[in-house]
Write a structure and sequence with these properties.
Length: 210
């Protein structure tokens, strides 16, 4: 089952192409409700400590899961766990990237955790879309995102190769201290990204409108 989790932070609605279909689960994590409403999406579950909602009304019929402000997990992490308990094996996080840096880094950590648990996941805001892979290959279709960047998630990531891009890579080594595979561009219909050893964040991005 696929689950959409709406987190807080700025989004670019016109650039978001991922929307829930019938049968998908939708969860709003606290202020992520505003983003769900901005996109015109239904909300099946409203979750969080509700400290950032202000006067935003919770949709009628939505299941409500309340948590105290003093808690170990973020609202987005709680939403992920709620989705998994309900059978989600494919998760799309909308929001949580273009706002507070600590929330962005937390979302990136969630992507790593979900990958290690065998759950497919991406996070996106309309201007950025992020996924995580480890010691494998993935095919990325050319899309509305102009840039493709690869960021080492481990101290040393070996055997990184990229095909179908303006700046190809072959068996390169990336480190967290030397992130040189940034601002590439997909020039073919698809890009093939491969890594032999280590974890890699794949970031598709576009310049935000001012």
């Amino acid at each position: 089952m696929r689950a959409f989790i709406y987190a807080g932070g700025r989004i670019s609605p016109d650039n978001i192409t991922e929307h829930p279909k019938s049968g998908d689960l939708t969860i709003a994590a606290d202020s992520g409700l505003r983003n769900a409403k901005l996109l015109g999406e239904r909300v099946d579950i409203m979750l969080g400590d509700m400290d950032s909602l202000g006067d935003t009304n919770i949709p009628e019929g939505a299941e409500r899961l309340n948590f105290p402000p003093e808690k170990d997990l973020t609202d987005t992490q709680l939403a992920v766990e709620a989705a998994i308990v309900r059978g989600a094996d494919d998760i799309v996080i909308v929001g949580g990237l273009d706002g507070r840096l600590d929330h962005t880094l937390s979302v990136m950590g969630i992507l790593v955790d979900l990958y290690e648990r065998g759950i497919h996941a991406i996070a996106l805001s309309g201007d950025n879309r992020i996924r995580y892979i480890k010691s494998t290959s993935t095919l990325l279709p050319r899309s509305g995102y102009k840039y493709l960047s690869l960021l080492a998630a481990d101290a040393k990531v070996k055997g990184v190769s990229v095909e179908g891009c303006k700046y190809p890579l072959s068996n390169a080594t990336l480190t967290t201290r030397l992130q040189f595979a940034v601002s590439n561009e997909i020039t073919e219909n698809c890009a093939l990204v491969s890594v032999k050893k280590g974890g890699l964040f794949i970031v598709e991005s576009r310049d935000a409108k001012q």
